[in-house]
Specification:
By secondary structure, this protein is of the alpha+beta class. Helix content is 41%, strand content 24%.
């Protein structure tokens, strides 16, 4: 049997992180330049080696059976078997590679889960639908941080720009004019679970102060959707700046993120903001065509450890 290979892209949240956990809308797009890939190779039936998991980027080489049940890679495989109502994965090697930076707001965990669900179900001869794949990735994400909004697994599974409200069917966004973004990584490891619980404790302590920030972010997201659909990059950039201000007020920016955001703006970006959980991880800047190299260099000089340039293509 030939090896089965599946992959899934990274993602970035253009607008609405954190508020999306509290049922305000968010806009997210796939980042195709970085991907998680899963390759499954069958072992001969007489070979009772079970399932071998290899993930070089996290120095993992192990027998699936000895991983704890809540290990995200094991959970993704087990949830896939549950969805297929199959209780056993035949002997095989599951190799996971990813170019998506971990814990940096680019959806690495969800992308690995999506690629696992697709590869395992295809390996077993029953490819799962996107809806089921997305649910599997959502359930794995719940193990990492109890209250994920579901935006990561959705944008990564469907691999196109989305307008997302928690617990509602997502909407695809029309991108009338492609636009370019530069993503700058602070190199600071910042687990989403921690920033989500930080915001939750602020909200619990003082909902009257925090709810209006969520409302304001929701309004920015709605305006951004219009700007994306009508192809108005100046307006998209301005709204990114406003969104960043809200995230600063929520307390999830950091000096390193602010430094990259201000550098991008000073170097000519149309707008810039942190993206994802914050307090580290990545920021994004909307740029005019041809400005990519200049802004990428400025970000590297200002402390970014990695820069990714990506184009959000037109989508009808
Ligand atoms: O850090 P990321 O890219 O996983 O994004 C987190 C986005 C949040 O809104 C902070 C959390 C969520 O579940 O939507």
């Amino acid at each position: 049997m030939p090896a089965i290979s599946e992959s899934a892209p990274g993602k970035t949240i253009l607008f609405g992180e954190h508020a999306v956990v509290y049922k305000r809308p968010a806009i997210a797009v796939p980042v195709e330049q970085v991907r998680a890939r899963v390759i499954i190779t069958a072992l001969p039936a007489c070979n009772c080696q079970g399932v071998q998991l290899i993930a070089p980027e996290i120095n993992l080489k192990t027998d699936l059976a000895i991983l704890p049940v809540n290990h995200p890679l094991k959970a993704a495989i087990e949830y896939t078997l549950d969805a297929l109502k199959i209780n056993h994965l035949p002997s095989c090697v599951v190799k996971i590679n990813s170019t998506i930076p971990v814990a940096a707001g680019l959806g690495s965990g969800a992308a690995v889960s999506v690629a696992i669900a697709r590869a395992v179900s295809r390996f077993l001869g029953h490819p799962l639908s996107d809806d089921v794949v997305s649910d599997i990735a959502y359930n794995v994400d719940k193990l990492h941080h109890g209250t994920p909004s579901g935006v990561d697994n959705t944008v990564i599974t469907y691999s196109r720009p989305i307008y997302f409200i928690r617990e509602q069917p997502f909407e695809q966004i029309t991108v009338s004019k492609p636009f370019e973004i530069v993503i700058g990584n602070t190199g600071i490891h910042s687990p989403t679970s921690e920033t989500v619980s930080f915001v939750r404790s602020k909200w619990l302590a003082n909902p009257a102060d925090i709810e209006p920030i969520f409302d304001q972010i929701g309004q920015i997201v709605q305006a951004a959707r219009k700007a994306i659909e009508t192809g108005n990059p100046e307006q998209i950039g301005k709204l990114m700046d406003e969104n960043h201000l809200c995230l600063q007020t929520l307390g999830v920016s950091s000096p390193e993120l602010d430094q990259l955001v201000y550098t991008a703006r000073r170097t000519g970006a149309l707008g810039a903001k942190l993206c994802g959980g914050g307090k580290g991880g990545n920021m994004i800047a909307l740029i005019e065509q041809g400005m990519g190299a200049r802004i990428a260099n400025a970000l590297l000089n200002a402390g970014a450890v990695k820069v990714i340039q990506t184009t959000i293509s037109a989508h009808a």
